[in-house]
Structure formats: structure tokens, C-alpha cells
Specification:
The complex is a heterodimer of chains A (about 250) and B (about 80). Chain A is mainly alpha-helical. Chain A is built from nine helices and two strands, in the order H-H-H-H-E-H-H-H-H-H-E. The chains are: A mainly alpha (about 250), B mainly alpha (about 80).
């Protein structure tokens, strides 16, 4: 297929796609004027029924928590996939990390990066913890907070070096967080089954809206997902870094 | 804001060098996150910012670093 024919085919397909998009967009409701019954219902139920002021989190971690379970395990499967793809194969062996070879001068972290990073690590971790713990009150939750926490680990790599990062977040700890988070989330679901009669049913007291400990199992679910997501992203980060920094050589036969 | 998102998105497509593309994708993720925030969807904005501006470009950069190392070793 030559370039001109390809362009012509694209022109036809592009026009059709554009027309379909315009047709679709014309039918959208105006911005801010959504009147689906389910949305109105959730807005009205979230605070009195669950004491949760963040409706999005209420949906994700209570009314439709089963969907979140699926998403949680998508991430889990991705982490397992990365781990098994990047494992040490037969015929490969792990060599000393570039940064650790004796006599090699590691390029110094620039002063600006060092200072900015050092200043940012603590606030980043704090914001991460805040976002996880206040998922039922303010925007955010386990997923967002978890990724922010994993970013804290990335900052230690940027400001210090790979070895420091490994000391701050050893693989065993990261794997434990990932496993505990995923298992904890399932345990919350089973708790609902045991104490309230159905999978993921909210079985803890609802308390008053606006308090840190309120909304029943929603904060617990956020905590579990936060742990799992922190572990998952931190694991992928350290695995990819290991691939880049630690050389693996095929043995010469 | 919408215009800025469109410009950034186009820039991502037009950048041919993978390194620049990754950096541009990070900026695009940030701008898209801001757009969600402006449209009163702070939950989605947070997810979009952390994943689109940090996690995704990071994975691409690490993969690029690995590929470049492989290429240099072959020389």
C-alpha cells in the first residue's frame, strides 16, 4: 500500500470518525445538568446512610465495592506479571549494580535536585497518608494516596541513590504491603459476608459524618487499597530500576 | 483550558523522539488533571495527575533507559 492510498483511506475513516463524534457530542446533556436517577439517589444517600461526604468514594468503596475488588486485582495481576517477566532467567546472573562497582564514580546528584527532593519527600509521604485516610471525606482515597506514597519512594531514588532507595523500601516490605493490602480488602468483603449477610456489606458502625473514624468499612477499604497500591507501584518501580541499573549478562557457552 | 489540553495532546502525537514524547505525555497528564479539577471532578483529577503525570511517564523513561543501555553495550 503506497502513501497516497493510505492517506485516502485515512481521510475516509477520519471523516467518518469525526462525524460520529460530532453526532455523539450533540446528544450530550449540558455541562452541570445531569439528571440520571442513580446519580441523584447517590447524592442524597451518601451522607445520611454512610456518613461519607465524598460520594465518589462512597460508590467505589461501598455501593459498588465489588467493582473496586476487580480493579484492585487488575493491579495485582499486573504486578505479578511484571515480577514474573523480569525474574532472573536461567543463564542470566545478577551483576553488581552500576552504582556500586568499585572504582566507578557515580555522577553526583545536582544540588538543586538534592535540596528540592529532600524538602519534598516528607510532605509527599504526609499528603499520601492524608489522602488515604481521608478518602471518605475529601477527594481522593486509597488509590490516589497509594500512588502518591509510591512517589515518595521515587523521590528518595532521585535525591539519593538506588541503594538508599532499597534501604528505605526493601523488597520484602514492599511485597508484604502489596500482599497485606490485597488480602485485607478481601477480608473486609468476607467480613461483610459474615457479619452483615452479604459480600462487601458495610458491617461497622456508621458514626457521625465528618469524623475521621466514620462511614463504617469505607476507611478500612481505603487503607487496604492504599497499602496494596503503594506496594504495587513501589514494586514495579524497584523492579524496573533493577532492570536498568543491575546488569544481567547471559553466560557465554 | 480545553485548548491547552488539545495543544498538549497534539504535541504528544507530534513528538517523534520517545524521550520527548514521554516528557510531553507527563505534561499532558498534568494539564488533563487540571482540566478535570476545573470541571469539578477532584477525585478523577487526583487519579489522572498521579498516574498520567508521574507513573506512566516514569515507566516509559525506565524502559527507555534499559533499551539505551542495551544499545550502548552492543556497540
Amino acid at each position: 500500500m503506497n502513501a497516497r492510498l493510505r492517506l485516502r483511506v485515512f481521510a475516509v475513516a477520519g471523516t467518518a470518525l469525526f462525524a460520529a463524534l460530532v453526532w455523539g457530542f450533540v446528544g450530550l446533556p449540558d455541562f452541570g445538568s445531569f439528571d440520571g436517577a442513580y446519580g441523584q439517589l447517590l447524592n442524597r444517600l451518601s451522607v445520611p446512610d454512610r456518613a461519607s461526604t465524598d460520594v465518589v468514594t462512597t460508590v467505589n468503596f461501598d455501593f459498588r465495592e465489588f467493582d473496586t475488588l476487580g480493579e484492585e486485582f487488575i493491579l495485582f495481576a499486573a504486578v505479578v506479571g511484571v515480577a514474573s517477566l523480569l525474574r532472573t532467567l536461567r543463564g542470566e546472573h545478577v551483576a553488581t549494580p552500576d552504582d556500586d562497582v568499585p572504582g566507578r564514580r557515580v555522577p553526583e546528584t545536582s544540588l538543586v535536585v538534592g535540596v528540592t527532593g529532600t524538602l519534598l519527600v516528607a510532605p509527599t509521604v504526609l499528603i499520601g497518608i492524608y489522602v488515604v485516610l481521608h478518602g471518605h471525606q475529601t477527594p481522593g482515597g486509597g488509590f490516589q494516596g497509594g500512588v502518591i506514597l509510591a512517589t515518595g519512594l521515587l523521590l528518595t531514588y532521585l535525591t539519593a541513590d538506588y541503594m538508599t532507595m532499597r534501604r528505605v523500601g526493601p523488597t520484602a516490605l514492599i511485597e508484604a504491603a502489596e500482599g497485606a493490602g490485597a488480602a485485607g480488602f478481601v477480608l473486609i468483603a468476607i467480613g461483610g459476608l459474615l457479619f452483615a449477610g452479604s459480600f462487601f456489606e458495610n458491617f461497622l458502625p456508621i458514626e457521625t459524618a465528618g469524623q475521621l473514624i466514620s462511614a463504617g468499612t469505607i476507611p478500612l477499604g481505603n487503607l487496604a487499597v492504599g497499602l496494596a497500591v503503594t506496594g504495587g507501584f513501589a514494586f514495579m518501580l524497584s523492579e524496573f530500576l533493577q532492570q536498568t541499573l543491575i546488569k544481567r549478562r547471559r553466560e557465554v557457552r | 483550558m480545553l485548548f491547552l489540553v488539545a495543544v498538549c495532546g497534539t504535541c504528544v502525537v507530534l513528538a517523534r523522539d520517545p524521550l520527548r514524547q514521554a516528557l510531553m505525555a507527563s505534561l499532558y497528564g498534568l494539564v488533563l488533571g487540571l482540566l478535570f479539577f476545573v470541571f469539578q471532578a477532584p477525585d478523577v483529577a487526583l487519579s489522572q495527575t498521579v498516574v498520567g503525570a508521574v507513573a506512566l511517564p516514569l515507566m516509559i523513561l525506565l524502559a527507555l533507559a534499559r533499551v539505551r543501555w542495551e544499545e550502548e553495550r552492543r556497540k
